[in-house]
Design goal:
heterotrimer; A mainly alpha; B alpha+beta; C mainly alpha; A: mainly alpha; globular; B: alpha+beta; six-stranded mixed beta sheet; five-stranded antiparallel beta sheet; 23% helix
């Protein structure tokens, strides 16, 4: 005799299975413990043993006065900001292009657009390093043994980001009823008016999601900027990397906590912005 | 489980499914099925009929085991199966979306239920062959479902369920995804199959024509409760409530006020028509409705002579021509519209009336019904 | 969909920026990488130059990649990536499944809880993990409190694989969630109704029908694992190098860019091979929508 079901519970109510809930909780603990420990230690009084000594904001003050760390944080945020704008605009255009038009060599074009997503980041990083080094050398702008064209890190995270935006926006466009566009033109709207008044509002949730994705991806990017940032353009992750390599510092925890908060706030805001679309139509 | 309850009323020997005080409440407080009890007999073609959201599908899924009741019992062949998982029940289901496994051929789909329960491979082959024969799909045995039409996929779903030789076959809106022509064919085919295999069919539908034409007995459901259980003819001719009368076929409901009560009858005051005496055994409140089917109404140019008839002068508001019949909308003096189905007598004459005509409408009192609920 | 000729102005307006960007900041850099992989350092005045190269000097860099040390690192990279991917799959499948069958109003929240850490910077997450796995980290302190340990949790294979799972798990959950969500639950119900047990239903119906999501998830985790250098550097010891660490050192301390370029391209080709296998699998999965 097979085990009986519980009253009111169907055979597919897996959400109520105990073992599944246990796995879920275990994974959440695994995912969040390190992050919560990091945040907790950012408020800990410094000591060598790494034990809890008491609450303090001293680490934040230290991080604030560490001008290298702060300028790195500022660098990271500005790079993320710039590359988000580029990635969103270009990505959205590519999405509309691929959604709207049939053209020779489209499959190959799509494949090329997907390349930055699938290529390992380290390959992208070294290729960008080479590119900046070689072009810099060609123009004679730099002749350092590790020559870098200053101010160049911005475009690096954009390249892998804009195809992501294109994917997100395009998947949104798939649900678009093309007759709306025809109706708009039938009612006398021009190509541009139809684009701004019909298509863009429809794409908006996809654009927001894509921009969010681009922002966090560029903020998240360590590998590519690790190779392309010069001494003047150290990004936050790269700075932390060098600090981690030289030993654990409490102000790293403080600065990391700040970045975590920024990331989570950006993510939550973007999800809230998207929410009405999920609930309504 | 609670065997004390089971002994309350032993099911009659030819009962196959017994629903006893079954309720289903979903988390969030929605009561889909509210304390329903009835029996379904061996070999019936039973229909659960009702508007969407009336709980008919939930009830069917509880019989199959895909949902369990919050309270109450479901007995299948005399055994309490309320909490038995679906794979241990002698029922099989034809899903509304057919749920034909897309990654298996037709033959593998039909064989699935036999293979997972350990039926020997040569017997499986034989039974699959028979089942495909029965639904006339033998020639498509090696096809994948994505290369088949909706009608063909439905036959696969049927064969897949029937090959298991269930005691009860459950069909969830089986015709709703088919186009009109195919639906008529399938309706006849289902009736034929039920007669051939001789097992109980329980069908869920929101389409009264489907239920009337196929079922031997129908349970009309509304808001989680059963309104009436009867044969199709009984439901049509003797609906118990305004809801059933309105849901099964077209009906004219004329509301009246009760002016006096007699032992087996009441006198109603009906606007535009006057005082009418209607036979009834039911308790009657302050108001009641008279129900007349459109085809029971007669239209004549002059006042009918028969004194027994209920008659009233009406104005024709609209006429819709359908070939053999015409639907006429006639307004009573107080403005209520009545629907009349008129047989078209001659090719040219049609219904013989036109919009704006003032004519007499009449019906025999025995063709009308008093509805109190 | 309309032909590009019907509206050339719109077509070119939309096509130009993305195409130029892709060429300038992606294809050209890759071309540089490609060219350099066939080059060697120039000899100037009898000395090896630091940053001058002889272009088109043959396959030397590729031949050097078949040196046993490099081959064994390549094999280790593949093996560890496979292990991490498998662990991700085993953990992520029940997670994605559980979220899909949770009550509707809980689903977005649960999904967000799993995916949120993914938005946090890779380096910060790895750094956070170090603090937990260290010999005097949280786990070992907890073990010590009950008289166990300390267990060696990092600077070894376990550390690297745990780190990879920790970092890339959301990549597995998301495609799995998307496929399981789209899976018509009546297929599972039909299987149960036809007499299949829960396990038979999982093996015969759920698993084959969610295979596209599994394949996507495996690809999404396996590829970044192949290119790892941060996790293996911070959570593994010097003996835990993966191919990414070798590449990084060629562009850093070892300063042998041509060799690093060749290794990068080999890594890229390995990635393409994974993608080709995926394309092959999805072409053969007729009837299951991919």
């Amino acid at each position: 005799m097979a085990a009986l079901l519980k009253p009111g519970q169907g055979p597919l109510d897996y959400g109520k299975r105990r073992w599944l809930r246990a796995v879920f909780v275990a994974v959440l603990v695994m995912l969040y413990t390190p992050i919560l420990v990091l945040i907790a230690y950012s408020f800990n009084i410094q000591n060598r043993g790494g034990i809890w000594k008491g609450f303090t904001l001293e680490n934040y003050a230290k991080a604030w006065h560490n001008s290298d760390l702060m300028s790195a944080l500022l660098n990271s945020l500005s790079i993320a900001f710039i590359s988000t704008i580029f990635a969103t605009v270009i990505g959205a255009m590519v999405a509309v292009l691929l959604w709207r038009f049939r053209f020779p060599g489209k499959a190959a074009y799509e494949g090329a657009m997907a390349l930055p997503i699938v290529i390992p980041e380290i390959c992208m990083g070294v290729a960008m390093l080479l590119f900046y080094a070689r072009t810099g050398m060609m123009t004679g702008m730099t002749h350092l043994p590790w020559p870098l064209n200053l101010g160049t890190p911005s475009p690096s995270p954009t390249s892998p980001c804009f195809p992501f935006v294109a994917v997100v926006v395009r998947s949104r466009l798939v649900g678009f009823n093309r007759q709306l566009e025809e109706a708009s033109k039938d009612l006398g709207a021009s190509e541009w008016q139809t684009f701004t008044r019909i298509l863009i509002p429809y794409m908006m949730p996809g654009l927001v999601a894509g921009a969010l994705l681009a922002f966090t991806l560029s903020l998240d990017d360590f590998v590519i900027t690790f190779f392309t940032s010069g001494p003047e353009t150290v990004t936050f992750p790269v700075k932390i990397y060098s600090m981690v390599k030289t030993g654990v510092k409490y102000e790293v925890n403080a600065a990391s906590t700040i970045l975590i908060v920024i990331t989570i706030v950006a993510t939550v805001i973007a999800m809230k912005l998207q929410a009405p679309d999920k609930a309504g139509h | 489980m609670s065997s004390a309850n089971m002994s309350d009323a032993p099911p009659s020997p030819d009962t196959i499914v017994s629903i006893r005080n079954v309720s289903k409440r979903f988390p969030g407080g929605v009561t889909a099925v509210d304390d329903i009890s009835f029996d379904i007999a061996q070999n019936e073609f039973f229909a659960l009929l009702g508007p969407s959201g009336c709980g008919k599908t939930t009830l069917l899924r509880m019989i199959s085991g895909l949902e369990t009741p919050t309270s109450g019992q479901i007995l299948i062949d005399g055994q309490d199966m309320s909490l038995t998982p679906p794979n241990k029940r002698p029922t099989n289901m034809v899903f509304q979306s057919y749920a034909v496994f897309p990654h298996m051929t037709v033959a593998d789909n039909v064989a699935y239920g036999l293979r997972v329960t350990g039926v020997a491979e040569d017997e499986t082959k034989r039974r699959v062959g028979e089942a495909l024969e029965m639904v006339k799909l033998s020639h498509l045995a090696q096809r994948k479902p994505d290369q088949m039409s909706g009608g063909q996929r439905q036959r696969v779903a049927l064969a897949r369920a029937l090959v298991k030789r269930p005691k009860v076959l459950l069909l969830d809106e089986p015709l709703s995804a088919l186009d009109a022509k195919l639906r008529d064919d399938m309706r006849m085919e289902l009736t034929r199959l039920q007669e051939t295999v001789g097992i109980t069919f329980i069908i869920v539908t929101h389409d009264q024509d489907e239920a009337l034409s196929m079922a031997t007995r129908i349970a009309v459901m509304d808001k989680g409760a059963v309104q009436q259980i009867a044969t199709p003819a009984e439901l049509y001719e003797h609906p118990k409530s305004r809801f059933v009368a309105d849901f099964i076929g077209k009906v004219n409901l004329i509301e009246g006020r009760v002016v006096s009560k007699k032992p087996n009858a009441v006198v109603l005051d009906v606007p535009s028509i006057g005082k009418m005496e209607m036979a009834t055994k039911d308790l009657v409140g302050e108001t009641a409705a008279i129900a007349v089917r459109p085809e029971k109404l007669k239209i004549t140019k002059s006042e009918p002579k028969d004194a027994k008839l209920v008659k009233v002068k009406v104005a024709i508001r609209d006429v819709a021509y359908y070939g053999d019949t015409s639907d006429v909308v006639a307004s009573l003096p107080d403005g209520q519209d009545l629907y009349v189905t008129v047989q078209n007598e001659s090719r040219e004459g049609g219904s013989g009336v036109e919009r704006g005509d003032k004519v007499w409408m009449s019906w025999e009192p025995k063709d009308s019904l008093l509805l109190t609920e | 969909m309309e032909d590009w000729k019907t509206n050339r102005n719109v077509f070119w307006t939309l096509a130009t920026p993305g195409t130029l960007w892709l060429i300038a900041f992606f294809l050209v850099p890759l071309a540089f990488l490609f060219v350099l992989s066939f080059s060697s350092k120039a000899m100037i005045d009898g000395q090896i130059s630091i940053n001058q190269y002889d272009y088109f000097s043959g396959l030397t860099n590729y031949l050097r990649s078949f040196n046993p040390d490099i081959v064994s690192i390549f094999i280790r990279t593949l093996w560890w990536s496979a292990l991490a991917t498998l662990a991700c799959l085993i953990i992520a499948y029940p997670i994605a499944f559980g979220i899909c069958f949770a009550p509707d109003r809980w689903r977005p929240l649960l999904l967000m809880l799993i995916v949120l850490p993914f938005w946090i910077n890779l380096l910060i997450r790895t750094y956070a993990l170090m603090a937990v796995l260290r010999d005097n980290g949280l786990v070992n302190s907890a073990l010590g409190a009950v008289g166990l340990g300390p267990l060696p949790l990092m600077n070894n294979t376990f550390g690297v694989i745990f780190g990879l799972v920790y970092v890339y798990m959301p990549f597995m959950v998301l495609p799995l969630y998307a496929t399981i969500e789209r899976l018509d639950k009546s297929f599972l119900e039909a299987s149960l109704d036809l007499g299949g047990t829960q396990f038979q239903t999982f093996r015969n119906i759920t698993l084959p029908l969610t295979m596209p999501g599994i394949v996507t998830g495996v690809v999404l985790v396996f590829i970044p694992c192949l290119g790892t250098f941060l996790t293996s550097e911070l959570l593994g010891g010097t003996s835990s190098w993966m191919i990414g660490n070798v590449i990084q050192s060629q562009f850093g301390p070892a300063n042998d860019w041509p060799f690093g370029s060749a290794l990068s391209l080999l890594l890229m080709y390995a990635t393409f091979a994974v993608l080709a296998v995926r394309a092959f699998l999805s072409r053969n999965s007729k009837g299951v929508d991919v």
